[in-house]
């Protein structure tokens, strides 16, 4: 039953991510936190999301803005060094509260900040921040979206560029929990393999749907989805604390 639940959740959330380039990882992390320990959920989520985003790299390779990758990677590796030093593992309640809060935090940021991922300094800061969020909450989509909403990138460029930076982040997250902390490798290999297949399939299906959505609707649709999910997750986290 665990295997079936993980595979179905991965397939469904990868389809969501394949269409909206957001929300899927957020939903999947919440499901895995209900089924597994936090380190195991982080590693399985990282494997599934690396496969999910990795498949989008292939699907949208010609649209990737490669100039963003170097400064983003420097920031991401800086965050890995910090977490490796402190060796912190969040509890389930904190994960739910953080996942739920980030979409609302993103809305409260002043418009004058004008965070644009295409600027090297902003990409560096994005790598630091987003990778930190992935380490703490597993999913970082709502935070990453802050850096794209003011960009002039098309939906295909957003999908491709987010895919490669998110893949890097999830690989780093897996490395932190599985190798640095030596935690989270408690599931059979078949579960990881099944999650990878489901993630790739979900993205392939999503790629056929996204062509029917214009850029404006693409950038607005996911916002409503993550706010609803965020409210549910905050309530879940607060309930767990109480």
Please tell me about this protein's structure.
With 242 residues, this protein is mainly α. The protein has one domain. It contains 10 helices and no strands. Helix 1 packs antiparallel against helix 2 and helix 1 crosses helix 3. The longest helix is centred in the last third of the chain and has 27 residues. It is globular, with a radius of gyration of 16 Å. The chain starts with a helix and ends with a helix. The mean pLDDT is 86.
List keywords for this structure.
242 residues; mainly alpha; 10 helices; globular
* Individual helix count: 10
The total count of strands amounts to 0
Query: Which stretches are poorly predicted, pLDDT < 50 over at least 5 residues?
Result: none
Task: Describe the global form.
Answer: globular
* N-to-C CA distance: 29 Å
Largest sheet: none
Which structural class should the secondary elements be placed in?
A: mainly alpha
Approximate helicity band: over 70%
Number of domains: 1
Order of helices and strands: HHHHHHHHHH
What is the overall pLDDT average? 86
Beta fraction of the residues? under 5%
Radius of gyration using CA atoms only: 16 Å
Quick structural overview:
The chain has 242 residues and is mostly helical.
Which SSEs are present, and which pair or pack?
Elements: H1 2-20, H2 24-35, H3 38-59, H4 69-86, H5 92-108, H6 120-137, H7 141-146, H8 155-180, H9 189-210, H10 215-241
